[in-house]
Amino acid sequence: MSRILSLGSALNDIYLIDHDDLKPTEIGEESIFGKILVGTKVDIDKLSYEVGGGGVNSAIAFVRHGHEAVLMANIAHDTAGDAILKVLDQEGVDTSYIDYISGKATGASVILLDSKGGERTILTYRGASKEFSNFEAEDLEKIQPDWLYITTLRGDLKTLASFLKKAHEMKINVMFNPGIKELEQAKELLSLLKYINILLVNKQEAGMLVPGANLEELLYHLKNYTKTVIITDGAMGGIATNSEDTYRFGLYADVKIKDATGAGDAFGSGFLAALASGKEFRKSLIFASANSTSVVTKIGANKGILAGKVDLHPMPIQKI
After folding, report:
1. 100 with 10: CB under 8 angstroms?
2. What confidence tens digit (pLDDT) does each residue in 94-140 have?
3. Residue 120 bridge partners (DSSP)
4. Which of 41-45, 56-60, 212-216 has the lowest mean pLDDT?
5. Angle formed by the axes of helices 263-276 and 281-295, nearest 10°
6. β-sheet with 317-319: strand ranges across
7. Cα 281 versus chain centre, distance
8. pTM of the entire structure?
9. What are the structural domains of the chain?
10. How far is CA 185 from CA 161, 179, 283, in A?
C-alpha cells in the first residue's frame, strides 16, 4: 500500500438526462443539442446528483485499490461542499487537507446527457476550485506521501512549480495529468517536466507541447522531457513508454458508453493505483484501460471505478 496525495478539483456534478430532447443535431462539422429552443420549457427524464473533479475522482480510485489517499482541494461551506465531504468520508479518503474558500460556492458542473447516444455537454462553474494558490508545498512535509498525483491547477504554474520542486527535493514520485490551461503555457510547462515521473496526455494535448504527426512521433519528443509518458487516443487506444519498454494498446473492451465524464481521470489514477501496488508497467496500462472502460458504462465520473483485486481479461497490447 502507498500513501498518495491527489491535488486537484472537487465539484458537484448535476446530470440532466433525457432520451429525445437532448438528441444531437449536426450543423456542418459541429453537433448541438438541437431540440432545446430559447424561451421554452423542456421536460427531462432523469436528474442525478454526483460528485466529481480530478482530485475527487483520483482519490476515490486510490482508496478503492487499497491505497491511503489524501485529497488537497478547495470547497466552500455550503450543501454542495458537504455532499462532497460525505462521499469522500464514505470512501475513506483523508479530507484533512481540503480547504474552504470564502466568497465563492463549491464548484459544480451541469451535465446535459443524451441517454441514448451518451453524448454530453458540460456547463461548469469552477467556484472554489478555480484557484489553487492557497495551498502550500511545505505541507508535503506533514503529509509525507509516496506519490503526488496532480490534475489541472487551472494554469497556476507558480503553485505547480512549488509542489513539483518540493516533491523532487523530498524524492516523492509525481504523476501529472495537465489541463488545457497548463498546456497553453507550453514552453513553461515543458521546463517543469523534469520534476515529474509520469506524464499523461491525450494525442491532441501532446500536440500542444511537441511536434508530431502521429503517436510515435509525439512520444519520441515527449520522452526527452520525462521518463514515463502515456498518450491516449480515444477509441484508437494509445501509446506509452517508461524508457525501457514501449507499448501500443487498444481498447480494453468495446462497450456502450453511457457517460464519458471522468474517463481520463479513471485511466490516469487507475494506472498509478496499479503501479503503486507493485504491478509492472504493462499490467498497469491494462488496469488503467479497464478502469476507464468501467467508468464510461455508468453515469457519474467515479461510480464505475474498479477495486484493485478485480479480475481482468486480456486486451490488445503490443510491445514495440
Report:
1. no
2. 999 999 999 999 999 999 999 888 889 999 999 999 999 999 999 99
3. 113
4. 41-45
5. 150
6. 68-72, 3-7, 147-150, 173-176, 198-202, 228-232, 238-241, 246-249, 317-319
7. 19
8. 0.95
9. 3-20+46-319 (3.40.1190.20)
10. 13, 11, 33
27, pLDDT greater than 90: no
The secondary structure of the chain as a DSSP string is: --EEEEES--EEEEEEEESSTT-EEEETTEEEETT--TT-----SEEEEEEE-HHHHHHHHHHHTT-EEEEE-EE-SSHHHHHHHHHHHHHT-B-TT-EE-TTSPPPEEEEEEETTT--EEEEEE-GGGS--TT--GGGHHHH--SEEEE---TT-HHHHHHHHHHHHHTT-EEEE---HHHHTTHHHHHHHGGG-SEEEEEHHHHHHHS--SSHHHHHHHHTTT-SEEEEE-GGG-EEEE-SS-EEEE--S-----S--TTHHHHHHHHHHHHHHTT--HHHHHHHHHHHHHHHTTSSSSSTTPPPTT-------EEE-
Q: Which three cell numbers stand for residue 237?
A: 487506444
Cell of 166: 518540493
**C-alpha cell of residue 148:** 503526488
Nearest to 71 by CA among 243, 301, 61: 61
- What is the distance between the alpha carbons of residues 185 and 193, in angstroms, rounded to a whole number? 13
